[in-house]
Amino acid sequence: MAVMQQIQAEVEKYPLVLFMKGTPQYPMCGFSSRAVQALMAAGAVALRTVNVLEEPEIRANLPRFSNLPTFPQLFINGELIGGCDIVLELFESGELKRIVEEASQP
Fold first, then answer.
1. Nearest to 32 by CA among 46, 10, 53
2. Angle between helices 95-104 and 84-93 (to 10 degrees)
3. How many helices and strands, by DSSP H and E, does the chain display?
4. What pLDDT, on the 0 to 100 scale, is given for residue 25?
5. What angle do CA 68, 75, 23 make, to 5 degrees?
6. What does the pLDDT read at residue 1?
7. How does strand 16-20 pair with strand 79-82?
8. Quick one: how far is CA 2 from the chain centroid?
9. The Glutaredoxin domain covers which part of the protein (predicted)?
């Protein structure tokens, strides 16, 4: 299952990975847009994004990989954090900034 290995490689290679619909500049759904805005506001400059609309294999298999059926999906240091609702909760509590800062340190 090459696509599962590709997903695993993405989340292991980059400290901050957001699988989303669209791109940060052109999000294709409101949830992806809000998640990107929260991450940027929290200082996530080294954010790696994967547009699942351009990667149908990833879009089809990521829910099996993460056991989360919706998009966007945020992974930090290889660990699934959650979708838009979790990202916004973490942002509002101030936790997202701390997590992003820790993940961004070498």
1. 53
2. 100
3. 5, 4
4. 95
5. 90
6. 62
7. unpaired
8. 20
9. 17-81
Q: With a cut of 80, say whether residue 106 has pLDDT above it.
A: no
**Amino acid 104: pLDDT:** 80
Residue 78 tokens read as 């290889």
CA-based end-to-end distance of the chain: 31
Please report, for residues 37, 81, 96, 106, the alpha-carbon distance to residue 61 in angstroms, rounded to integers and kept in the order given.
25, 17, 26, 30
The widest CA-to-CA distance across the chain, in whole angstroms, is: 38
Q: Which residues pair with 75 in a beta bridge?
A: 17, 80
pLDDT in tens, 45-102: 889 999 999 999 999 999 999 999 999 999 999 999 999 999 999 999 999 999 999 9
Tokens 């959650």 sit at which residue?
82
- Distance between CA atoms of residues 48 and 10, nearest Å: 9
